[in-house]
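Data availability (excerpt). The following record was deposited with the supplementary files.
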Amino acid sequence: MTKQLIIFVGQNTNETSHLNDTIMKNSDSKLMSRRGFIGNSTLASAGFMIIPAHSVTGLGHIAPSDKLNVAGIGISGMGKGNLARVGKTENIVALCDIDWREPTQKVFATYPNAKQYKDYRMMLDKQNDIDAVVIATPDHTHAVISLEAIKRGKHTFTQKPLTHTVHEARVLTQAAREYKVATQMGNQGQAGEPTRRLREMIWDGVIGQIHEVHVWTDRPNRGFIDTYWPQGVARPVDTPPVPPEVDWDLFIGPAPMRPYNPAYHPFSWRGWWDFGTGSLGDIGCHSLDPIFRALKLKYPTTIQAVSTLVNQESYPSGSMIRYEFPARENMVPVTLTWYDGGLRPMRIPELDEGMQMGSGGTLYIGDRGKIFDDKILPKSLRDAYNVPKPYLPSSPGHEEEWINACKGGAPAGSNFDWAGPLTETVLMGNIALRKELKEKMSTQVLNWDPEKFSFPNLPEADKFLHYQYRNGWSL
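Predicted structure:
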């Protein structure tokens, strides 16, 4: 049975407020039955509307017992998994993807009652029953789709990185606050128990004040001998025909138009400046998140970078990016260094016998010891340490956090107030890699002013905070 919300509209504000209070306090009484309600002369004289609860935005409109009507936008990759978890408890009512080939058809078959679209704008125009959206499109379309949904009062789950540009991240953060929708970025590791135990150990002072952190990934490589997608490559010159199932114009979205090529879609878009955010954007919102939480970080004061050769089409095949953060609360300034493409810190002497640095990891360096991933080093310090009793509350699950927030619960752990500034910092690292800035970046760092939203010592870098959208697209 569809839940309904009864709103009284009367000329007397006090009378209307009293009647609305009465209806809530007597939800099981005859007053709440249609016949009893309409037969009540006092209520009838006030004027009223009976409307579906889900159609009222900003009133805590989804009762906890109700199911959300959820739409998926970008459904054949990460979106497929997000929808599977959301669909355990909620209604999947609409599915949208620009590519209707076999992977998408399989998702369509999983939700046969959901309406099917290629254009998210048409979907949002046609289906007024949508309460919330799950967005898992390529990075360059995250912001335009998310903002459209937010402005329409839809609760919004957007895959990491939240946006393609630093400016877009700031805009989405502000929009989510303004429209008061429940939000979540898709960095699911933040909901796990290991990140909570790590925070508790660091805040307990096990390795003292932390002044240095190193974090690395194999991306775009797959371990030491393979790759997930290419970076450091030039634009392909061949122009094969667009598959009939693909809407290439919608894939391009706000980016500059270029001919279709399977080098971009599916998946390999990650390595291209126009569509993806490279290795840092792909993994940074995952691996930097626990660091930001444990060390209470927000915006850096400086950024610098070195890399392999970089061009104007794709990200370098390997890079190192260093962020400096100021002192905050009771913590000293900290340097955070990012490595990708197979680069990583040199082996540290405190490692246990047989332990490897590996193709990905995180190393915290304090004045009393180190933490490598979740292992305290050296072993003597680990053996002597009494791990504190867990006290940070567990998460019900990443998607579940968002569902609960949509229904009036606490904000999700990676809501846009958190995810926005994190994404800004991640994407600033990519600006330091730009070919156009490489020579100057060899002699100076980028200074960041979050209030003025600029790099005061290198104004030419400001143009990379955003870009001019293609005609017909805007935030």
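Summary of structural features: The longest helix spans residues 416-431.
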